[in-house]
Each structure stands twice: as structure tokens, then as C-alpha cells.
What does this fold into?
Amino acid sequence: MLNLLNLSRVELEDFITRDLGEPSFRAVQVWRWLWAAGARSFAEMSNVSKALRAALAERAFIYRPETLEEQRSRDGTVKLLLRLADGELIETVLIPDERPGSDRRVTQCLSSQAGCSMGCLFCATGALGFVRNLDHAEILGQVLVGREVLARDYGRGSAPRNLVFMGMGEPLLNLDNLLRSLETAHSEQGLHFSRRRITVSTCGLPHGLRPLGESGLAGLALSLHAPEQELRARIMPKAARWPMDELLAELERYPLGAREHITLEYLLLGGVNDAPEQARALGRLARRLEAKINLIAYNMTEGAPYAAPSPERVLAFERELWSLGLVAVLRRSMGADIQAACGQLRASASNKAGDG
Ligand code: SF4
It folds into this structure.
């Protein structure tokens, strides 16, 4: 049996025309039902012939992750703990836009793996270790689930405006499923997200950055978190195996469209990477790459090895970047009251279940 949500647009067409002997316009109809309408069953596909619905039910099914737990923050952030078919747990987060006048604009943060092998020291997912890659249906199933939550809360037709691959996992370690998912996310007859509305956040891996750039399917956020190699190696030991000089050289070659920029993500860890001279070093890198900077103040978790930066240090860091004429945005630490940092909800669910 085949999960239809695991098929690309071309694969679905092949299945419907070659395996089931139906005309190709039927594939378009089914695709629309799956991705534009978010159908959960073949019975809902009212403009598809009964015979085809029966044939589909014999050979295929529609399965997406199930919501196990929903947490809501005072700031409007909604975090969903999802269970996969094999019982693995992942997270996705719906984050309302913080800019004034942008109410109901929601960015959805997606997971690309269950767990993560990168072991960044500040990350709850890293502490869980790697379980497995998510497939196409599991990656984009998160969007279907998120859309249902938004439709329930804000009315029919509500959907996430932007997608960011910043949840559990290192997306470039699941490159094939990532690229397949990005293709499907773009489909005009389906989810219909343009490149400008999708960002892939990565530590930067030698064999993954170039194919992602060449695909032209998403913007890039690079999780830098340290302005020099030695410190990066301390807090992101596996990511830093790719020396920063080589990473930066690759970033300089990263293909960008008009008015597009790479974003450098920088998590401020109290007393570790939040000094003014580190802001200046970060500024030099951002200049070299013509990159924007996203600052995030570390959100301390139980047993965390790092402290949150003081508000004064955060402000001083920001000012240093501004004085260099750089665009640096301090992201709110969203959903601090619901453990919105990546991996925390999954980690606490594991603890409750006794496996973490
Ligand atoms: S920060 Fe990202 S890459 Fe690093 S351990 Fe966490 S999920 Fe993995």
C-alpha cells in the first residue's frame, strides 16, 4: 500500500495514468484534493469518479502525522507534538508574526528529522540524538496539520504564510526528502509557497549547500552562532568540522535572486558569544556575505549548559551591529512559556514516557 502523500506530482501522475489507467487530468484532481484541500480520505474527493476512488482505496491510503499534544503560548505561538506512524515524535510550531499590522500572518517551523545527529551543545534536539529522517509525507504532513489548526482558530482558508525548516533535525542531512518536499510545497495546484516564503535553516554541510542553492527552491538561513572557528567548534562540534573559511567561501558562491540575502542566525549564549568584540567579528562576516543577521536570545531550559544573555548584553550586541550599519533583528524568544525551543517538547514527552 502506498501513502499518496509520499508521491511527488510526477509520481502521482505516473501512478494514476500507468498503474490505474486513468487520464492525467485525474491526477491533477487528486493532487488538488491532497494538497490544496487537505483531504484525509478518498470519500471526500467528490469530483473524482467512484471507480477511481475505489481503485485508489485498494492500492493506496492517505496518512499524515497525528497531533498528540498542543501547547499554546500567551504570545500566540502554538506548538504541536506529532506522532508518526511508527510512534516516533516530532514537533512543529506555528509562530504569529510579531510585526504590527501583520495579524494572522503565521510562520510555521518544520522538522526534517526525528532527533538530530549534529549534537549542537545548546540544543534540546541535539541531546536526543538521531532517530531517523522524515519522508515527504511526514515533512509536508506538518503543513497540512498546521493549516487545520489555523483554519480552526482563524477560519476557513487560513494557512501558514511562511515555512521555515528550523525545527528538529539538520535539513541537509535529509537532502533528497527536503528537495522533494520543497518541490511539492511550490506546486501551484497544491500548497503553493513561493521561494520567498520558504527558508531552510542549516548548520551548513559541504555536500548539501550547493544542491540546495542550485535548486532555487528556498531562501537560506545559516546557523552560525559563533564568529570564529574555535568557538564554533566548542558549541557546534560536528558542524564546525567544515572549517569556517571553507563554509564562508561556499556561502559567497551561494546563488541568490535579486534583493535576496543569506540570513545568519546567531543564538546569544550568556558569557559565551555575546561580547561586543564578538558582535564586531560577526559584523565583519555579515558584511563579507552581504547577509542579514537574526539574533535570538538563548532560552534557558532545565539542565541546559548555557545561561541566557542579560538584556544589557543583548542590547549592547545589537547596538554594535547597528553602528556598523548592519541589518540585525532580535527575534523574540517565542513561546518561552511553552518550551518552544526546538526539541524541548519532544524531550519532555520522552521524559514523561521514560525513554529520555
Ligand atoms: S541546532 Fe539544529 S542541527 Fe544543531 S543539534 Fe539542534 S536540530 Fe540539530
The chain is about 35% helix and 20% strand. The longest helix spans residues 136-154. Residues 350-356 have pLDDT under 50 and may be disordered. The chain has two domains: 2-61, 66-353.
